[in-house]
Amino acid sequence: MANCNKLFLDFNDKLKLTSSKIRRMITARENIKTKIAEYFKDKSKYSFSGTWIQGSYKMDTIIRTNEDTCDMDLGVYFKSVDSEVTTATVMDHVFKAVENVTSTTPSKKSKCIRVIYKDDFHIDIPVYHYNSEEHNHPKLATRYNGWEESDPKDFYVWFNEKSEDLPQMKRIVKYLKAWSDNKKGKFPSGLAFTIWAVKHLELNDRDDVALYEVLKKIKNDIDYSWFLPMPVTPFDDVCKKLSDQQKSNFKDALKAFIDDAKDALESKNQLEASKLWQAHLGDRFSDGADEDTDAKEAALRRISEKVLASNAYSQRSGVLNDDTLGVKNKPHTNYGG
């Protein structure tokens, strides 16, 4: 089996946001918060209570796309909203508050306002009404369906508990998102991939093996049913918006990924295996070494055992092996510490 674990760890590093992009996003977030606070300070029908970062940025599963873009979710919270004010009106006011934050006009989405920082990142702004004395959970403003119960903080807590001391879980989520980004089709959401990763990850010393096993289990799930419930309020189906054609396309892409992942794991040549992973994860996944890396690692393990057992010989070429024509090494006594 071609061990590509190191290539996956390198790939994970390439998916991380740069420090400069993070600084720009933090500045943008603070600017948006200031604009919204100023806009609503004299509006008697609203009581703005603050903002809260949510989603993948908060959970450390955010990725840079192939185009070097990313997104942040910044929830805007109101402790009170006049009962006569519609959700669409609330969202329109938030739109006006951030309308001139950048040179690009924000987008009005069904459940958020999107502020676009062209060719860099965008910030989605969902709007919530939440008074802890009146509500068990926040109410999300939707443009067409009024207020809907939704609790991003509960999801963050749920994921944090599930992923605590499990960095591999976060990496698997990011690999799945990178696959979706590379394929550019209408795949299940990052939310769905996050839930699947939590549900199916079996820890492994190797990320390539762990990802392969998760992919197989996702296929088993959707072969039986596409129903994937949100684990917290509102407990709805996170795959319900996918059309039949989108589901079919995803199943085809998933099967192709599983087949190539299996071949990659069974390959003896790391370069050959890396090419199979690249077909699905993209060019940021590095080329492997054009050699049987497993055999090389096995040989190194064997000679290390001989060194520790004082059965290793140094040859004229400098190579260590068990050929008795060489000079026998002295017993190894340096065990570190």
Automatic annotation (TrEMBL):
Reaction catalysis annotation: GTP + ATP = 3',3'-cGAMP + 2 diphosphate
Keyword list, A-Z: Antiviral defense, ATP-binding, GTP-binding, Magnesium, Metal-binding, Nucleotide metabolism, Nucleotide-binding, Nucleotidyltransferase, Transferase
GO biological process: one example: nucleotide metabolic process
Domain of life where this protein originates: Bacteria
Coiled-coil parts of chain: none
Domain Cyclic GMP-AMP synthase DncV-like nucleotidyltransferase: 52-128
One example GO MF annotation: metal ion binding
InterPro entries (alphabetical): DncV-like_NTFase, GAMP_synthase
Pfam families assigned: DncV-like_NTFase
NCBIfam families named among the record's database cross-references: cGAS
Name of the protein this chain belongs to: Cyclic GMP-AMP synthase
Annotated source species: Polaribacter dokdonensis DSW-5
